[in-house]
């Protein structure tokens, strides 16, 4: 997990606080005090004194370098039991440990104090900055940006430019627009900068022309005085804008139907984005008629700069084992290898394994430790189930029972077996809609209605069917933004590439709509391949999720979460974990084919 630097000011202020403001008995203790003795004492003491003893133990552990244990102790302290003069010390210690140990939820927990007691200005600035950085780490970028802009308004610190920009650059237009009434002139300057970058559509020359104009109009703005590093890095891409894309897709054979849906998405989005894409040219080449090397030769002869495709998993595997490719390439699948070797080769697809790993991470973030698994008894189920189990165990979770079911049968017996293998506190479900709808009622029958269910996108057909999906109520699942627009924050109007969505969604068969969305994102990724090569930390908020690149060039999708309520998907957020509105804290007043694609 990313660890955010604290900066010299925060460090200096914290030192002042610890020396000058801490209650007696914490910093005055000699370094060889025994925290174990204090923790043992706490078990015998009244709640208020026990909380003080645990705080002292956490402080000693931190000063002795045992920071992981110190964080565990500080996190478990009930700060409501602490006298007021100790609560600030607890919050400063917990937030500092959470930040340094890469545990953002500890920082967020500490920042709740800002709403509960009056905090001195310098301490408040430290807590607010840490809070903003922590929110960014859990992908609450709107709240993070607002908090950090508020801190910058009080300090004028240019050092906050990069974290502010990192969050703003991950927001879509409607989210940016919704922030205008919640910030001041400084914030509105940031929003104008974010909008001009979004509207540049990947045209680097246009971007820097508009950036220079913005800096002239906002000469005193911190980002005008010191442009964020990510924007400066884009200068190296001048002259490398992608103007010609070759698309390698089959026009016949077993993957022709999948290819057609992806092709439709690429074409529709290309037409929709024609005004902002600067005249990008597309060349479609048939992989069912030529060898991959012949296709590359033809693409180069036509003047293509990058390639989208191929789709076939075996062809992707062949390419990932080469040292380099004739042109930068975005494969539309993932190879068989554990990693991608080829320089300039990116791989992108609708991977069920990626979804399973994301489900595992969310389940652990929600505090679950013992998961049961219900997956189909076939190659797909084994592959996706293995991905979930490996990630779950990596996160120190326990599998209570893994049940492989017959997709053609009833869910009654398999659900009973899930419950017979132990005491799970969640269920990982991999199932298509007709099977998935049987599972919650069966859990009810076996008196397990409160067992949380976490599922992949495969249980949702992609269109509202409240009567059919009512049986899925309270099931949590992930899906691409375009497939669950009503579960998106901001609704349909906040979707990425709204005009393309409206054009494709009007007549699309729900069974292929995800593939069309994949075509849209493939087009946008291809136009940004030089940027992803130069800046590996680049992200794309796309139709199929937030897209990032792994170290080996594989594109990873980060999907939004939804929960069925009355048969309709509704949004759920990371914020739900604490059951509080984190945005208020610290704000200033003012079944798939063998190729991994569903067909």
From TrEMBL:
The gene is lpoA. GO terms for cellular component: periplasmic side of cell outer membrane. This is Penicillin-binding protein activator LpoA. It comes from the Bacteria. It holds the Pfam family LppC. Keywords: Membrane, Signal. Residues 1-24 form the signal peptide. It comes from Halomonas chromatireducens. PANTHER family: PENICILLIN-BINDING PROTEIN ACTIVATOR LPOA. PROSITE patterns: PROKAR_LIPOPROTEIN. InterPro entries: LpoA, Peripla_BP_I. GO terms for biological process: peptidoglycan biosynthetic process.
